[in-house]
Predict the 3D structure of the following.
Amino acid sequence: MALLEIRALTVEFAGTPAICAVNDVDLSMEPRESVAIVGESGSGKSQLLNACVGLLAANGRALGSVRFEGRELLADGNAATVRGRGIGFVFQDASGSLTPHRRIGSQIAEVAMAAQGVAGAAARAESRRMLDCVHLPDAGRRLSQYPHELSGGMRQRVALALALVARPLLLFADEPTTALDVTVQAEILALVAELCRDFGMALLLVTHDLGVVAALADRIAVMQSGRIVEQAAAAEFFAGPRHPYSAGLLAAVPTLAGLS
Amino acid sequence: MAELRGDRAAMTGLVLLVLLMVAAVVGPLFIGFREDEIDWQNMAAPPFEADGHWLGTDRLGRDLLLRTLLGLRVSLAIALAATLVSLIIGVAWGALAGYLRGRADALMMRFVDVLYALPQVFFVIILTVVFGRGPLVLLIAIGAFGWLTMARIVRGQALALREREFVEAAVVGGSGTLRIVARHIVPNLLGPVIVYATLTVPQVILVESFLSFLGIGIQEPLASLGNLIADGAAEMETAPWMLAVPAGCLVLLVFSFNFLGDGLRDALDPRDR
Amino acid sequence: MNLLELRGVSVKFRQSGTKARDLAAVDGVDFTIAEHEMLGLVGESGCGKTTLGRAILHLVPLAAGEVHWRGQRVDQLGQRAFRPLRRELQYVFQDPNACLDPRMTLLESVAEPLRALDRDAAPADRARRAQARLDEVGIGASLAARYPHQLSGGQLQRAVIARALIVDPQFVVCDEPVSALDVSVQGQIVGLLERIRDDRGLASLFISHNLAVVARLCERVMVMFRGRIVETAGRRALIGSPLHPYTRELLDAVPGIDAGARGRVLRRAAHAQPAKDDASQAVGCPFAVRCPQVLSRCRVERPRLQAAVGGSRLVACHRAGEWPGGLPPFTSV
């Protein structure tokens, strides 16, 4: 049974004018598989993720079917139970995951309590363990710091730690490195690859950056105006994409080739 | 604007306001009586009883509906004029202070703070003692204080706006301080300013009514909602309509401005953009 | 004669409360830009490159150093005195959504520098010239009459470029002009800038965190780290044989768009670099904290930016002479 099965997913937003962000998308994922959805702004890729875990805005509606481990997520209430447990989520800006006025240790401990039922010292120990898993330097001190005291890259590591506490089977990542500098981005990409391998997680990554895709994806889906225009294994894709839009995207990436 | 149309309270307020304004401006023309006409037959007559006097008459037999509409006219005129004065001075002062920051800002806002601390009623009384009573003195007295809060609000907005990149772009484009404040700062803070102005008008009306009620605002025979209410209060037990009609009109006016102002504020909330 | 010359320029900011507001100081920067030259400036966020650009345009005061424009010293001028120079030095901002007044149409925004700097022009003349510039960058009259929120990032950035060019400047600081745009649109804007460079012979300081974009447009590139220039070289030399460890780190971090990238990422260690300290390194090389070939000398003695490899290359590293062919890629720590 596929881990995640998306069938005929359509996402619409009411308003003047009404917007169809995602248009009849099919996608399925096996356990431990890494899939990247590539598209430019307005392609609907973020809304696709949001629809799966019930994070659409009030005027949004999701039609079709999204099955996670066989359970239909678009049915009322199911998305909330799976959020943070079966499916972890990392946002572009760590402030999507981190509360600014609470210490980091207590935020991780809170999730640990909810997900694993531990409390007190056990929760704190789990927090410490998670920070070590994401290789946050000086983890002991970090537990009692606030998010704003950390750099962008470190905050993103904490966001990953938060996502992992519940040991999800699938990690959603929406532009996880776009806001980071290129050297920090390289570290975080390596970290995500390592965590997926060690924790046995599948990864559904959404990004406009083909460099990120190349670093993390087994399989690539290209999205344009709400539709998936091409799906291919990573090796095939980079060897030569078939759809002209994908080829255009690949050609547009500035590279250092030809200069060294 | 679409959100405003959907907001029932705001639209009710708007419609009511328009009706009241129309009534104040043209209403008196349709009423058969003159302002100072004394109806000896129908002194202190209740509504619907005396012929022609739909809402009754006052102690001197003057038609109450007419006097109320005329009072509405005066109150509205003073309120709108005073608010306009507050708007102009307050926006100019606050925008300049917020943009300049530093010592200029500190000086300008300390001046505002000092004025703010003065008791307004006291000041008005002194003015009326020195310059006599009347609509103009009242207008000056109210206008002199009305701009203070507006200046504070505008200054806060201007402080935030000056950090926006398009202001920096205007500096790079060679624009000087005055041009930037006039073309970039002020137009971009008009939203909150309009909302606040709409909510200021009822406050001014109440202040004017209060002062007129005390006898230091609009004087007889000129009618304002305030002095009509004062007369009505004196006759409350024998002729309650003399109080009810102008007071009811005041309430409707204040409500309609407030509903409209709240609706505008919600519609212009930047979070909904 | 050099068009622009910076000598020992430093800019300091008082740190305010939250970390997000900490802006890196610029610390003793020297360089020159010749006529018609497009110089690239590469560095990460917070390294001070934006602050440097702003300092050149007289938007922030210098703590030390001098800025010379056409041989004349300009950093000490008051804002009023500097204003006429704004016809010659212009700036292209990073975020087109932020740097255009939301209440003005594109045409009005582009025409605005003319109102301030070219008082003799009549309104009709200003509008005509603004539209001409917009046509040059590919924005027709119907788009020009619209407001920023009605247009895409790429269209807005074209208008921002048009606005910078309308006073016919000789020098433009381009501050991350393509970073806020989608990849395919980036290519178009970079092409536009190339065309403008060729047509007008504009001199420019092109700032970006993306080495690939900078290398496409600029013959000569400077690398900045924590407020200092650490390496300056021609683009081929910089990419082919980097001399400074930070340049090497930047090059290693550029993600490859090929099938082998996944394997490389899996092999790379995920350990974090030591935290960037709030207190900037007062003594010694600022890169010593994370340099794989740090010596004890590096922690106490600050390397100066000086000539290396006997040419026009400049490096600030004590060990610059040890790898004349350039540093090889660092293996994972």
Summary: The mean pLDDT of chain B is 85. The interface with chain A takes residues 2 of chain B (CB under 8 Å).
